[in-house]
Design brief:
- This protein has 294 residues and is of the alpha/beta class.
- Helix 8 runs parallel beside helix 9.
- The longest helix has 20 residues.
- The N and C termini lie far apart (67 Å).
- Bound molecules: adenosine-5'-triphosphate.
């Protein structure tokens, strides 16, 4: 019996590990990623988030030594503001996010949150401070209600219900055959991309992190679900510092500031109307997308 018991016990352990890690959904990334593990400093103190101001200062980075991806990237996300990153495919937008999470270490330069270099704080506290709405959300073979609770395993049913309301998911969940007990995931009901992103928004609301990241899905959703997601995100972003990776410029017209990345360099930064008036790279991106959409 011992031989049978051991592997089962081990599986249980792995399951609990994964389930625990998914309390912070982005940790899945850490678990699965082949990235060299970034180690904490011996004296690493917890990050102490006050207002959630983010600062990238002269960041240089490459995944491989002979191919530099980011070149002297500097920008600020003021506390409580919404900043968007746009740019062509391969410009380095996701790389910026991965560095902020410290999945990788910059080759030079430093990233600060409320004045604290993220290379000096412990990673658990860093990831605790950041809520992410990823492009593609992982759903487990569990009910939709429990899937949302993954955002904060200790959350009460009332808290989960609140998050559902704020993520504009109530109508959708009530329309399901078994309501909130409906099984989702690989062996259950399949959700659309937009529905999954709203589940991610609900999880992020539960997590209650001061800094929010939103990675807009590359594939476009129908405009109704896109509007639902955007308004849900706008609502939760109030009072939070947020960084949005946008593929459709129409979704970030209201951002406090837009950073245009090209070949790993910040080539322009400002708000929508100012960038349009400059008739530079942003203006060209905007016009290209308008043509595609018309
Ligand atoms: P997209 O809009 O297509 O998502 P992006 O602007 O987010 O693009 P990144 O994903 O940051 O671009 O990629 C920037 C560059 O880094 C690309 O040339 C890509 O090939 C390279 N890159 C990304 N991830 C890795 C990796 N794990 N190892 C090596 N190179 C990578």
């Amino acid at each position: 019996t011992m031989q049978i018991f051991m592997p089962l016990n081990f599986l249980g352990f792995v399951y609990r590990e994964i389930r625990g890690a998914l309390a912070n959904i982005e940790n899945l990334f850490t678990l699965l990623s082949k990235a060299p593990s970034v180690l904490d400093d011996k004296e690493a103190a917890p990050l102490n988030v006050n207002k959630g101001k983010i600062r990238f200062e002269q960041i240089n980075f490459g995944y491989e030594p002979d191919r530099q991806i980011l070149h002297n990237v500097s920008f600020d996300v003021p506390a409580g503001k919404k900043v968007a990153i746009v740019g062509p495919s391969g410009a380095g937008k996701s790389t910026v996010i991965k560095l902020l999470f410290r999945f990788y270490e910059a080759n030079s330069g430093e990233i600060y949150i409320d004045g604290q270099p993220i290379s000096k704080v412990n990673q658990a506290s860093l990831r605790e401070a950041i809520g992410i709405v990823p492009q593609d959300t992982v759903l487990f073979n569990d009910s939709i209600f429990e899937n949302i609770r993954y955002g904060k395993p200790s959350a009460s049913d009332d808290e989960v219900n609140d998050a559902i309301r704020h993520a504009h998911l109530s109508l959708f969940i009530n329309s399901l055959p078994k309501g909130k007990d409906t099984q989702v995931g690989e062996r259950g009901l399949k959700l659309s991309g937009g529905e999954k992103q709203r589940v991610a928004i609900a999880r992020t609301i539960l997590k209650g992190a001061p800094i929010l990241l939103f990675d807009e899905a590359t594939s476009s959703l129908d405009s109704q679900s896109e509007q639902a997601i955007l308004s849900a995100f706008r609502e939760i972003a109030i009072g939070h510092t947020s960084l949005v990776i946008a593929h459709r410029l129409s979704t970030i017209v209201d951002a406090d500031s837009i950073i245009v990345l090209q070949d790993g360099r910040v080539v322009e930064q400002g708000e929508h109307h100012k960038l349009l008036a400059q008739k530079g790279p942003y203006y060209h991106l905007w016009n290209t997308q308008q043509k595609v959409n018309s």
